Amino acid sequence: MEGEVEALAYEFSYLRHSNIKNRDEIIVEYEIRDGEKARGREYQFKELALDCSSPITGITLNPTYNRMIDKWPGWSQMNIIYNIDKTQLSNTTSIWNATTGMLSWCIAVQLIESNSTKVLMEELNIIRNVI
To answer: Could you tell me the pTM of the whole model?
Structure first.
């Protein structure tokens, strides 16, 4: 209907992140809307440097996306699993602080229209983890 506006206030939400030290994994958890309300939309996740705009350098983060369908009606949980290759950690790694032993980066989550690049909403989350 003309003049109608859809509110996108709660389409996804950061839950938490945790480190599994014996396996060098960092898991980041989100809730995302599914079902009828999410039709025609897709989620895009981007890993960026701590400033949330620059690319990450000196290390390759190869995330695995594990979507757990039907957390409750209309919602799923998305787990992003990062296997950290500690051999890549050096002074040239843009997200590594050797003094503190901490990795810090930004995840940009975007809700986009399917078959488009139009970003409907974006959330930036800072991940800081000692490994």
So the answer is: 0.80
